[in-house]
């Protein structure tokens, strides 16, 4: 009611205002809108600019960034200052601007070629609402929306530019700001809310940061390699030792009674420098031996080929296959070992993990491992692939762009084949699964070595493989055939189509009973 009353009063004092007064009022309107825009821009730019970027600029000696940093540390003070300025400028704009616009609109109505009573009615009834709408439009567009858009588009530049004047205004109105903040705290305490003024900053959670990294639109300046590296760092804690270990079937170990000569032979054949030392079997790991530790004794002590390796066996570190990598890495650092033995729930040896395996989870495969990858994966043509059976199924899907389903019952390509066939296939056996044909190309006893994957045509796959959804009852076949205007498939239990002479005499009565149970009627 107050703005409308002020507008009516302004119309009544219309004769007392000259053109210079109206011009000054218009300048005041524009100035108040600009003041409102200043506070809105300062608030949004300082709040939205990244603190990490401001800290980086401060470290480089940027004085403007140091001012912004101080304002960000006391955001409650900044927000109180900007809200104080926005509120005062808006009230002043409503007081001066609405009455000024009402005067201008009344002048326009006064010049209309209408009867005096009509002109007076229009001036009093329409001038004030039109002035209110016009001022509100200018305030929202020029004083709110445009400044917010600019602040969100260029937060760093505007925050550095407006930081110093914002700090000066905050110091100027510090007594009023203190009263406002204390009033806010006391009022919130009445509702059981403990306000400290430190909760304004919206901290990014690790999950949100991971989503930002994975989304190219949120981090367009991030190269793909760096994006993948950061993603691997966040996923490091989600990977267990059992997922990256060298499996038991691929584990190379030396017996505890091995000699230096046999160790050198193993090193020459495999190219490894570290080996587990076993007793009676792989489940009896006695320790580890590092070939590089034998270099100095070989040179200075003159070891003989028949000497035993036992003096150089070091104790082994055993970990569970469910241990996350973010716990395994500190453990290996503390123990000073670059190789640990992974055991299953029964205490048997499941495999081993080296420091290189952990590094590969973050930085990716090294050139040495990539060459090994080429060995376990061979592309025969665009539809046929030869893959090692121990290859992780998720890696197979990723490398070959396949869609084998993942499950807890199996982890490798060979495990999938065994799970689907419910047996250990022999060399040459073939499994048709989904639109793929998998053939065991190489096997040693129960161990599968190489599996050939061939992607079949959809038509071929449909003719050679039926899923559980493909098996319909005789009623389903009949209704489906009727819908497609085809001849219905006969019910296999319809004994009228069977020549009874073809059945043994003792089987005819049984067949007749089965027909009654299936059809619910005597067969014709």
UniProtKB/TrEMBL annotation:
Limits of the CNNM transmembrane domain: 18-230
Gene Ontology molecular function, alphabetical: flavin adenine dinucleotide binding
Membrane topology reported for the UniProt record: Multi-pass membrane protein
GO cellular component: plasma membrane
Residues passing through the membrane, by range: 29-49, 84-109, 121-146, 158-180
Pfam families: CBS, CNNM, CorC_HlyC
Keywords carried by this UniProt record: CBS domain, Cell membrane, Membrane, Repeat, Transmembrane, Transmembrane helix
Chain positions covered by the region annotation Disordered: 482-524
Domain CBS, chain residue ranges per copy: 245-306, 309-368
Record localization: Cell membrane
Biased composition (Basic and acidic residues): 483-524
Similarity field: Belongs to the UPF0053 family.
Alphabetical list of PANTHER family matching this protein: UPF0053 PROTEIN YRKA
This protein's name: Hemolysin family protein
Lineage, top ranks: Bacteria, Bacillati, Cyanobacteriota, Cyanophyceae, Oculatellales
